[in-house]
Request: fold
Amino acid sequence: MNGFKWARIVLLQAEDDPYAPYYLEALDHAGLRYETIDKCELSDLSRVDVLVLAGYGHLDEARQEAVGAWVRQGGQLICSGSAWSLSPLLGLKEPLSHCSNEVISPSRQDRAWPDGCDHVRFFGGTVGAPAGAEPIASTAGGKTGLSRRKFGKGAAFFVGPHIGQTIAQMQLGRSVECDGIGPADGSARLDDGNLRAEDGSNLDFLDDRLAGEEGSPYFAFPHADVAKEILIRTILEAVENAGLVALMAWHWPRNATATSLLSLDCETFEPGHVQRLHTLMSMYGCRGAWLVALPGYTLDVYRTLRSWQHEIGTLFVTDDTAGWHDEKLKIQHVAIGRSSASPSIIATRPMDGKWRGYTRFYDQAEEAGARLSLSKGGRQPGTSGFLFGTCHPFFPMRKDGSFYLTAELPYAVYLPGSVTSDQACDAILEKTVARHGCFHIVFRPEAADVPENFGSLRRLLSDCKQRKVEFILPEELYRFERARRALRIVTRNIDLEGQVQLISDTRLEGLTIMATGPRCEASFKGKSLNVQKVRRYGTTFHCVEIDLDPKAAAELRLVPQGLKAAA
Reply:
């Protein structure tokens, strides 16, 4: 490939599949440029380069023939969740098997399989026996869950896990209406009459945890993130097979490999704890999100926190006779904003990790004006880690298929040194960095007086700094993620040059645009940019960092290296 020819990636969601819309969440968070189409558009695929069929879907005979002819002529097909009546094209033997809860493992090292993972659990999807396909990952029973098949000039990929159903049922968990069933080893007690988010996890206390030499077992596997990465890796491979270029807007500001967020549950209001924690955090360039319950700190403490560029949030107090009525969070959220003289409060979390229902808290947070929930996580030693399968922020979805304005960022570490052991913290941090996620730590100000907690937090902040994990605040995270997903992108090709027009509704700083393809030189608004080469998702990218002004169209130009000199 000698120039930039942008790939047209299109997504078709299964019509009657309630989980298919969550594929949008997977692709939007990845920052991959794609389009959606309807089933009627399958009759003419001449302008499509990569076709992703998502969810439990079926194609009639005419559309099967159209897709088959398109692949034979060079098209790149990806079926995920089901075979879409295309088993012969995919190289699979009928009948296929439905999976409600399954695990696949790689048969060998392959670019489609995420690095550092030996298995992935998924909820929903399809597996089958190969009949011409090249197996990449299989179940313990030998059924293929991930495969590729060359067909004519094109290729057909099978991603058996239902990525959308896995996101919905793993990241959101179950509706918390009563106590959950805890593990048999006594490392966590869920049947205690205290309804928390941890009561709603769908992961397994036996198979999804690891036990180290110290402390209790912890949830060691971000399964949902691995499943999403399999899909993204497959799409990027398909683009490369077509000899084209894919465009992505990276997850984090300033091209950070991973991020870390420290949030603090403030139920006591001792100014000495605030000063001591700030002294520790400032040593490592970390700023914290102080989630404050009523009645809160005095105004001078809030002013001091803001002068240090820390952030104020709301710790939702639920333990009284009034319960979880709709106005309660709004009243507390407004009260904390007024008492702290903060014009905008983004982050919130119920006290003590409490939870009710399925998405009820997101309804309340959205109504109150909070935009980032920091609520999903475990509060006991045996529930530490990736209890909801992810270390990335995500937007929950309503039953009508629309996304909430309020996002969720789960936490993996609670009170390091006592609830989450040092060994577990180290392993969780390593997994988070490998998955390019956000290492979310929850601490309590009064724990600054406990040597084991304070020492563990200091060590964790030092480890993050050494790994070049960038510290981030909830407001920065939310506004960046929201603006990045809403980014309007138009691509053009002029000879060998690739042009990208970018429009953001808000100010967007530190945006990293990544493109596959040849080594290149880049310019933005007529000025040359430094181009970095990175390896992510099994693919080599060339990336640049840019800042976008609100409502203003800006053009990024990519030219193969040496082309200008040759001209």
